[in-house]
From TrEMBL:
Residues covered by the L,D-TPase catalytic domain: 257-388
Protein name: Lipoprotein
PROSITE patterns: LD_TPASE
Keywords: Acyltransferase, Cell shape, Cell wall biogenesis/degradation, Lipoprotein, Peptidoglycan synthesis, Signal, Transferase
Pathway where this protein functions: Cell wall biogenesis; peptidoglycan biosynthesis
Domain of life: Bacteria
Pfam families: Big_10, YkuD
Residues at the catalytic site: 337, 356
Range of residues in the leader sequence: 1-34
Length: 413
């Protein structure tokens, strides 16, 4: 570079000017990035000192979750005691499960203020409750509690038919007989669920206070799978008496067989899947001991059994120790059975029984060629036997598994 060298004094002046320029540039940069503090505070709702007046992001939720019964409660009622509520917020999650992890189904109300179970709880069981609610700002509040239900001193169960895993006829209802008389049938019936594949409407009907049957409007379709859920554990069936049964089982409907007995013509036509496969000569009840009319369902089968008239109101009129191929149609003693003591000419020509439907047979049930053996071998529990044209009344629906004698409107009333 040409020119005279700069003296020390001149150099110092130039350095001061350069420093001043640099400082001014820095102030401009800082001012451009930071802006006007007063304007910034005013624009964000703050004060001139820069302090914010809104709630901090980590403020506690205003929602308050309450669980009844209280944490650690014991001997809690199985119905009506469990409830979860939220104040100043809405429930978003409620889970209740027993010690095995089985969940209790429940529902949060439309306004989110409460949750209640949709079914009763089991007796003598510990439950854990986990509930979450949100306040208006979306902040969550949670509560976890544990309680144990009462241990019942008095209990009942239901003896059911048909048995699990069996294949039965199209007329077979689900029939449950309770060991104690039920005074709250609605609670008990609500705890029992009967479903079918393919689906069909199924309704229950009470016979007295200790028997509940379920069936569809028409006979089951062949091949249907029926599932029964007994959730009776914890149900208060009568004051102070609780169910202790929790079981799910299934059974299958086999082929369709409906047999029609004409007491006047003295025949029985056996219909299988819509086709008459056999017409058998029979003997029905004698004029003084006629056979019930109506739809009846085979409920028991015995290759050989004893029949004593004294057990069904006929005194000592008969006591046959080896009646072959017997199938029960009523609780009161109506059977379809083999008869070896009447002449073969009786069948198809005379009605001579004490109310049963008789088929020709041999003693000992050892001849598979007889009409009685043929019918026995081709019948299963749940098959339907219809009796018509008998000079007797229609069988009562509770006399055996014979609810089909009620119309659908009577059944569901």
């Amino acid at each position: 570079m040409n020119g005279q060298p700069i003296s020390g004094k001149s150099a110092r002046r130039r350095g001061v000017r350069l420093g001043a320029l640099a400082t001014g540039a820095l102030l401009l940069v800082l001012t451009a990035c930071g802006g006007d503090p007063a304007k910034d505070d005013a624009g964000s709702g703050g004060t001139a000192g820069g302090q914010k007046t809104g709630a901090p992001d980590n403020a506690a939720s205003q929602a308050v979750v309450t669980v009844l019964p209280k944490d650690g409660a014991d001997s809690v009622a199985t119905s009506g005691a469990l409830k979860v509520t939220a104040e100043q917020g809405k429930l978003t999650t409620v889970t209740v499960a027993d010690s095995k992890g089985s969940a209790v189904e429940g529902k949060i109300s439309a306004d989110g203020a409460s949750w209640e179970p949709l079914a009763h709880l089991s007796g003598g069981t510990q439950y854990k409750v986990h509930a979450i609610a949100k306040d208006a700002e979306g902040r969550e509040s949670a509560k976890d509690t544990t309680f144990t239900t009462l241990v019942p001193k008095n209990t009942f169960i239901g003896h059911y038919t048909p048995e699990a895993g069996t294949t039965v006829g199209v007329g077979m209802p689900v029939s449950i007989n309770f060991t104690r008389g039920i005074t709250d049938p609605e609670a008990v019936e609500k705890a029992i669920k009967v479903t079918a594949e393919p689906a069909v409407e199924i309704e229950g009907h009470w016979f007295g206070n200790d028997r509940l049957d379920f069936r569809p409007e028409e006979y089951w379709k062949a091949g249907t799978k029926v599932t029964v859920e007994l959730n009776l554990d914890g149900v208060e069936g009568r004051p102070g008496v609780y169910g202790k049964q929790k079981k799910t089982y299934s059974f299958t409907i086999g082929r369709r067989q409906v047999s029609t007995v004409d007491a006047s013509a003295k025949t029985m036509k056996v219909e299988r899947d819509g086709q008459i496969i056999k017409t058998l000569p029979i003997t029905a009840g004698a004029p003084s001991t006629t056979t019930y009319n109506g739809q009846m369902v085979i409920s028991e089968k015995y290759k050989v059994t004893r029949m004593n008239g004294a057990t069904v109101g006929f005194g000592g009129e008969y006591d046959i120790k080896d009646v072959p191929h017997a199938m029960r149609l009523s609780t009161s003693g109506t059977f379809v059975h083999g008869n070896y003591w009447a002449p073969k000419s009786t069948f198809g020509s005379q009605n001579v029984s004490h109310g049963c439907v008789g088929l020709s047979d041999t003693r000992g049930a050892g001849d598979s060629s007889t009409p009685a053996a043929w019918f026995f071998d081709r019948s299963i529990i749940g098959d339907v036997v219809i009796v018509k044209n008998s000079k007797d009344k229609e069988i009562k629906p509770e006399n055996g598994l014979n609810g089909w004698n009620l119309s659908w409107s009577e059944w569901t009333a």
